[in-house]
Amino acid sequence: MSRLSTPQSLRMPLDRLRRAWRASPLPRFFAWWGEELAALLPTRWRSLFGGGALWHLLERDGDHWRLRRADHSEPLASWSDSLDPAEQQTALADALRGVDHEDLRLALCLPASVVLRRTVMLPLAARDSLQQVGAFEMDRQTPFRAEQVRYDLHELNAPASAGRFAAELVVVPRTTLDPLLERLSVLGIGVDAVDMAVGHGRLGVNLLPPEQAPRRSHPRQQLNWALAAGALVLLVLVLAQWLHNRQSTLEAMRTQVESMRTDAQQVSALRQQLQDNAGAAGFLAARKKHTVSALSVLQDLTQRLPDNAWLERLSIDNNGQVGFQGQSAQAAKLVDALKDSTVIADANFQGTIQADPSTSKERFYMVAQLRKIADAKPKPPSAPAHGGSVL
């Protein structure tokens, strides 16, 4: 006989989990933590947020019923069994007024005189099937058969030999319990458990047949699940928003870095352009510094050519080669006139000297090489006797 209506395939793992939970220090820790947190709340808030099972014990004494809180000796209500069911229900409802229906738990407590208790030592493997073990031990520990009684088997916190644990078998004859349950059913009073009174409290077993266990709705639990689901959805939304903000920030940083990279490339290009311009300017300045100017060449030729000679064309290339074309009465003497030049050197005729019938002069074309700037120091003759002309 099982005290839970859960299917066997699910009940055994659940029982194993419950035992592991109760054996761990977590229940005591959370109980202590909850009490400490509740102590920080105002009294009104404490009553508002308080919850949990509130066990009330219903006891039968002859023809009278008595109701009291678990672990309390003062009765909350007492009524005679001679009253009609409506009056008994009213007496019970008046005593339980103010108790949250979701937290209310009602247990029928039997006197110790009608309950048989036996302590048994069982192997550890029997922890997963206490109810089946209880049915097997019934013939050995009691004078009853399993179908004659309502029973429960619960583990004890007592020393045991290696590989075994202590458990207590609690048995009540069905002839004793079933009439009480039928009477409560007639009165319209449903109980959550059938237990045995121990002092002002209860033993902690449940002899109630599973088919008679009340089905309770748990709106607060449903609300808690809804709130938990809402909190989970909000957490997901917060994480999604955080990821979105992070992605947006990353994109903004990438855009900023790209803009800074573009600015850096522009600065680098400007720096390179400045360096190129500075190099070109330096090159031009250096070339100008180390190269004889065309004006100096023209001045030197003007001073050294005779008056009867003139130039028609003058050119200077990048290699420092000077070419000049003109006419002179005695072109052959021009080489001697230019050999002392401090601006040009190696003046020679290129091609032949030709006579020009229209001017009765000799047409010539000469080439020379510019001297280096250190050597090109024009020294005009102290007493120039003549000077050429440039056309």
Automatic annotation (TrEMBL):
Organism for this UniProt entry: Dyella tabacisoli
UniProt xrefs under PANTHER family: DNA UTILIZATION PROTEIN HOFN (PTHR40278:SF1)
Keyword Ribonucleoprotein: no
Cited Gene3D superfamilies: 3.30.420.380
Spans through the membrane: 223-243
Any Pfam family matching the protein: PilN
Record-given protein name: Fimbrial assembly protein
Highest taxon listed in the record's lineage: Bacteria
Record key words, sorted: Membrane, Transmembrane, Transmembrane helix
